[in-house]
Each structure stands twice: as C-alpha cells, then as structure tokens.
Amino acid sequence: MAQGHRVERIAALVRREVSELIINGIRDERLQQGMITITEVEVSGDLQHCKIFVSVFGEMANKNEVLDALDAASGFVKGELGRRLNLRRAPSVIFQLDRGMERGTSVLDLLGQLKDQREINNNLDIPSDE
Fold this sequence. Notes:
Layout: H1 2-25, E1 35-43, E2 49-57, H2 60-72, H3 74-84, E3 92-97, H4 100-123
Parallel strand pairs: 2-3
Antiparallel strand pairs: 1-2
C-alpha cells in the first residue's frame, strides 16, 4: 500500500516538474507549435520508467513535431527530474501522444450526426408500422 502511494506521489511530482520544464526549461522552438497538456503520468512500481502522456492542440504535423522535440529532450528531462526531485536514480522518460481528447471529439461529432439524422427522419414524417 505504501509503495502504491509513493508511486502516485512521484507521478504527481513528475507531472508538475515536467510541466514547468515544458514551459521554461526546454529550449526547442518546436514546442511552440501547439498547446501542450500533460494528461497522465505513469511511473513503474520500481520507479525506473516513466511514461508521460501529452495532448497537443493543433494540426497533426505540429503534434508530431512537438512529440519529436519532447523525445529529443527526454535525456535532459530525466536529468532534471533526478536533480529536482532528489532521486538517487531518475526514471527513464518516454513521451506518448494521448489521443483521448481526439476520440472524445469524434464521439461528440457522431452524436451530433445522429441527432441531425433523427431530426431529418422526423421531418420526413415517415409513417410507422401500426
């Protein structure tokens, strides 16, 4: 139980520090391509690996550029995490694009299309089978 709580605490600290690094620490112009949000941080139980899910608002090409920039900075981020969090051994960092928001938007679009189709069918006054 204590180990799980520690992992959650480390994940929250990683999220905070990486957010700050994205804003002020990583000097890569590609990070200006879109609005970056850290959606989730997963830290392995042994604290050796850290997966950081990011959402990038913008065009797909820009999202790929932002992800490339983050990947290029992963060594720097690992070093900074070790220093800032006083970790004996900093976890390796992997950035991954979180497409959850895109899926949510497409679901909302589909629901809108269903609503429109239902309204069209109601306006056509299709007789029911009685």
